[in-house]
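Protein 1 of 2
SEQ + STRUCT:
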Amino acid sequence: MDNSNERSSDPLAFPGLKVLIVDDSKTIRRTADSLLSKAGCVIESAVDGFDALAKIGDFSPDIVIIDILMPRLDGYQTTAIIKHNARFSETPVILLSSKDSIFDKARGNIVGASDYLTKPFTSEELFGAIGRFASSGAKADQQAPSESSDFA
């Protein structure tokens, strides 16, 4: 990735925004973590859908970024489970995929995804997607955690 684009971004564009990154690729998790941490985000990572569901209740992310193609529980299935939970139904979910077909994007919409980024993505694309939902995600953080967030 071009580091000159990172320098032009506001280093604290999203102070305190909680982002859950779900991807089986360590490289994608590290890249997104690095970019978003520099922008002031608080990051939690998960290696697959099951790991994400185990962490989401305690972390209470403002935004979730999920890869579609993962072992065990894919991004579509994970998104659908998150969106069917009352506590997280309004939490924006951004899907990541190397596929860019209209079918894949439509399937993402069906399960409740808020946006869709195609890999490889630029820092501008990532920041743009986060920026579109940062204010709506902050509302989810203000919800009382009294509702159960169990996904089992």
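Protein 2 of 2
SEQ + STRUCT:
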Amino acid sequence: MPSGPQFAVTKGFKHVEAIIKYLIILVGVVLVQGCATKYQETTDWELKGGYFERKIAAGLYRVTGKTDVKSWLSYSEARRIFNKRAAELCSDKGYILIDQRESSLRDEPIGNSVILSEGAYMPIKGPGMTVATVEGEILCKGGALTPEEAKRFIENNVN
């Protein structure tokens, strides 16, 4: 039969285990939230993620959604930003996707060396960095152009 002090120590360890589990969950939630790209206006040349668009004609836009610089590729995140901006541009009417393309900007893994002792080096490789981009043309529903006219307009007038 356990004595009083042993029971108190065991109970104390269970309390510490519960706190550690809570902290692990909390850190996981913070990390997942910290990895999401902010929905914000950006430009083509900035390394921050977000969206930008160019009006091609009345109700016709080229929209781009891109991620922040990451060590992994996330087209789904870039697509989420693209779709949200397209929906905003066309408000209640909705939109028709004319064309959509995925691309990425990749940097090679970063290489450094650590000096172990005089004359001895150990190479260290870090992850490469990537920006995922989803770009395409959208046509707001209810506009002057049909989807076929929009495609022809893009082919003849947009580079």
